[in-house]
Automatic annotation (TrEMBL):
Keyword Oxidoreductase belongs to the record: yes
Residue span(s) of domain Glucose-6-phosphate dehydrogenase C-terminal: 186-482
Record-level GO cellular component terms: cytosol
Catalytic-site annotation from UniProt: 237 (proton acceptor)
Broadest EC class assigned to this enzyme: oxidoreductase
Source organism (scientific name): Microbulbifer aggregans
Entry's transmembrane regions: none
HAMAP family the UniProt entry points to: G6PD (MF_00966)
Protein's recorded name: Glucose-6-phosphate 1-dehydrogenase
Gene3D superfamilies (alphabetical): Dihydrodipicolinate Reductase, domain 2 (3.30.360.10), NAD(P)-binding Rossmann-like Domain (3.40.50.720)
Binding site for substrate: 175, 179, 213, 232, 336
Pathway(s) of this molecule: Carbohydrate degradation; pentose phosphate pathway; D-ribulose 5-phosphate from D-glucose 6-phosphate (oxidative stage): step 1/3
UniProt lineage: Bacteria, Pseudomonadati, Pseudomonadota, Gammaproteobacteria, Cellvibrionales
Length: 486
């Protein structure tokens, strides 16, 4: 259980708060992780929204919790911690004084300011927190992407926040880092002698990181059309996953040590500039198609704006130029409106150096470690074995299943719950340092600049497919193929 804390949730009535944050806090309450006197202050712009907040939150919980999680009893306890307030973030008037009164003068109690608001108002919000004297020794601020549009704007946002909070109190969320299997990936790598010795260019042929989604714009057309898949998914989630897979063992699991290793990976990422962008990256945009038996419109129809060349898919061949990974391609892929929703990391091992069996035994399939983050969480290792009950010697791939949800049948993991409790407990290990954000943008910026300068047009792909043909060709040219989720 965490120590008691106060969390001021700016943007309390917004989509992120209602879809993810309030359900995450409810789950934390259900599992007994919220100390009884902890208080949550969702901030709404209008008084009437604050007045009806309990109804809104209850509806959100009923809609967004998984089957069986909501109960009237659970709600009537949880709602005691919710105290909605009305506040115009930009104006330092008496509404802020009211918030200050509610928070009181306890300087020992952790005070978390969660900014689930557009970055354009981060500055005024932090400034008013400061003017009203609400920031004390135990205060932390939690922020989330989009932290800028490129290196420059990201730096401006970070500088603004840094005017009011020291880096140690700034918790930048990437919700992928809160996913249970991502943390288990670290345990797998650094607590098993088996894997860490087989984790380099000597044994690994290549690595794939794929995040495929079936959803389209989900009412975020304005934001998404400005951002595109590279900014929305690669700059943050995919590069973070890549860091965790590729980094050296940190001296300890402290935030400082983990971040130092991640930054080294980002700095070793081979830059893709000019024509290298065309050679190593495929951009795509979906056209109408069927996902299952559900027909969906194309991106441009959904957007209702002809001529946008924003990418909704991207596939990348990346290299990390260091001793461990020399010559090992990292293939990254993400897209909207693809055939299946799945986030998966595939560690593809090399072939055995010599096949001792004759042809009748069949080919040995190279080992493969498949780490699935969603929809379900699993870790599977594909090994070769002898086919059972066969008099002949016949090789067969078998799956060693390290799936957590089958071992712990009550797993109810929730990335936001994990990260919010970490922020409350002042544990920044799974949050992102300003230097990481800067290093990621430094890699992404020249790619976007090349697309802009050349007027690059995305390749089209049918909604419900695995992306454009060119993405398959990218790997085929290397004698490889994407592992598509089954
Ligand atoms: C967000 C992106 O960061 O991650 C969305 O902005 C995307 O476009 C989402 O849909 C995916 O998160 P998850 O956890 O559902 O895979």
């Amino acid at each position: 259980m965490t120590n008691p804390f106060d969390m001021v949730l700016f943007g309390g009535g917004g989509d992120l708060a209602l879809r993810k944050l309030i359900p995450a806090l409810y789950r934390a309450h259900l599992e007994g992780s919220l100390e009884e006197s902890s208080r949550i202050f969702p901030v709404c712009r209008r008084q009437e929204d604050a007045d009806s907040y309990l109804d809104t939150a209850q509806k959100a919980l009923k809609t967004h919790l998984r089957d069986g999680e909501y109960s009237e009893a659970g709600w009537s306890e949880f709602k005691e911690s919710l105290r909605a307030v009305a506040l115009d973030i930009a104006v330092p008037d008496e509404q802020w004084d009211h918030l200050a009164d509610l928070l009181g003068g306890d300087n020992e109690r952790a005070r978390i300011f969660y900014l689930a608001i557009p970055p354009a108002v981060f500055g005024p919000c932090c400034e008013n927190l400061s003017i009203k004297g609400l920031i004390h020794e135990q205060s932390r601020v939690v922020v989330e992407k989009p932290l800028g549009y490129n290196a420059k704007t990201s730096d401006e946002i970070n500088s603004k926040i840094a005017t009011y909070f020291p880096e140690k109190d700034i918790f930048r969320i990437d919700h992928y880092l809160g996913k249970e299997t991502v943390q288990n990936l670290l345990a797998l790598r650094f607590s098993n002698v088996l894997f860490e010795h087989l984790w380099d260019a000597q044994t690994i042929d290549h690595i794939q990181i794929s995040i495929s989604e079936t959803v389209g714009l989900e009412g975020r057309a304005g934001f998404y059309n400005e951002a595109g898949a590279l900014r929305d998914m690669v700059q943050n989630h995919l590069l973070q996953l890549l860091c965790l897979i590729a980094m050296e063992s940190p001296n300890s699991m402290s935030a400082k040590n983990i971040r130092a290793e991640k930054i080294k990976v980002l700095e070793a990422l081979r830059p893709l500039v000019g024509v290298e962008v065309d050679e190593n990256i495929v951009r795509g945009q979906y056209v109408a198609g069927g996902i299952g038996d559900h027909l969906v419109p194309g991106y441009l129809e959904e957007l209702d704006e002809p001529g946008s060349n924003t990418e909704t898919f991207v596939a990348i061949r990346a290299h990390i130029d260091n001793w461990r990974w020399a010559g090992v391609p990292f293939y990254l892929r993400t897209g909207k409106r693809m055939e299946k929703r799945c986030a998966e990391i595939v560690i593809q091992y090399k072939k055995v150096s010599h096949n001792v069996y004759d042809k009748s035994a069949g080919q040995a399939v190279p080992n493969r470690l498949v780490i699935r983050l969603q929809p379900e969480e699993s870790i599977k290792l594909v090994l070769m074995a002898k086919k059972m009950d066969s008099l002949e010697m016949e090789l067969k791939p078998v799956e060693l299943n390290l799936t957590l949800s089958e071992t712990y049948d009550s797993i109810r993991s929730d990335a936001y719950k994990r990260l919010m409790l970490d922020a409350a407990a002042n544990n920044p290990a799974l949050f992102i340092h300003r230097e990481e954000v800067a290093a990621a943008w430094a890699w992404v910026d020249p790619i976007i600049e090349h697309w802009r300068a050349t007027g690059d047009q995305p390749c089209l792909y049918r909604a419900g497919s695995w992306g454009p043909q060119a993405a398959d060709d990218l790997l085929r040219l290397d004698g490889r193929a994407w592992v598509n989720a089954r």
